[in-house]
Amino acid sequence: MDEAAVLPRQRPAPAVQGGKRRPKREREGAAWVFLSPWVLGAAVLTLLPMAVSLYLSFTDYDLFDPPSWVGLRNYTQMFTEDPRLLRSVLNTLLYVLVAVPLQLALALAVAVALKSMKRGKGFYRSAFYAPSLLGASMSIALVWRALFNDGGTVDNVLGSLGLHTGGWVNRPGWALLSVALLTVWQFGAPMVIFLAGLQQIPKELYEAASVDGAGRWRQFVSITLPMLSPVLFFNLVLQTIQAFQVFTPAFAVSGGRGGPADSTLFYTLYLYDRGFTASHMGYASAMAWVLLIAIAIVTAVLFRTSRSWVFYANEEGR
């Protein structure tokens, strides 16, 4: 018997450039070279401004004179001596509770309708997504204000139906709703995410439910919503965080003052007013950190409660 056939085969040595393997430190150095633009950008544009803002939140700073250390005075003043701050918090919470559910409900309804379409799906998907690209601009916000102003298009249409509102942006009870509707109109981004999630649901589940006699509504409640719950949770967290930071629509609708009667005085708008209009940059920095902590708490609560209603197919016992 041939001796070569008995001996075990030896694996060929891995090919290395130049006959030598590159040292580990050299490979790590190359990785850091490619990562350096991101690391530099994160440090200079994010971490450094955050550190400066944290320092300024403990100072009295008016943008012109050097900051003077005041300790926790800005924070205590926020919670004990500033009634407009409480009004801005309540307006922001009301806006989040109204705008986010309506936006997600409309996005899901349109996504379900697009999924069942046979022709023209790409066109309608692009058309519905376009407001998400344009809605954050000041120009669109100004057009929105003109639509809901006294004598605007919405006022004229409602007036022809016998409903004389006098302009939504001029009435304290309706101004916040007009801003919320602008956010609802920008449902394109969550709609696209919902549509992607709907396309991942197996058709066999709907076929089996149909055989068992389940109607469309029962299929939606028992199949679509549970299978889509991770996507719904993702959109809920994302849109909630964005809603807490709303600024441009409120600034445009109220002219930067939060009117009428502070009905559109959102937290970020009041932060801008304290920092750049009143030149209380230390106080505004403290407000910014309170907002960051509040968003972190709300996000943590959403993640905590998601255990009871978000369904993951690869988890056991769910």
UniProtKB/TrEMBL annotation:
The chain crosses the membrane at residues 30-58, 93-114, 126-147, 174-198, 219-238, 281-303. It is a multi-pass membrane protein. Signal peptide: none annotated. It comes from Streptomyces ochraceiscleroticus. This is Carbohydrate ABC transporter permease. Its main location: membrane. InterPro entries: ABC_transporter_permease, MetI-like, MetI-like_sf. PROSITE patterns: ABC_TM1. Pfam families: BPD_transp_1. It is found in: Cell membrane. SUPFAM superfamilies: MalF N-terminal region-like, MetI-like. The keyword Transmembrane applies. Belongs to the binding-protein-dependent transport system permease family. Residues 89-302 form the ABC transmembrane type-1 domain.
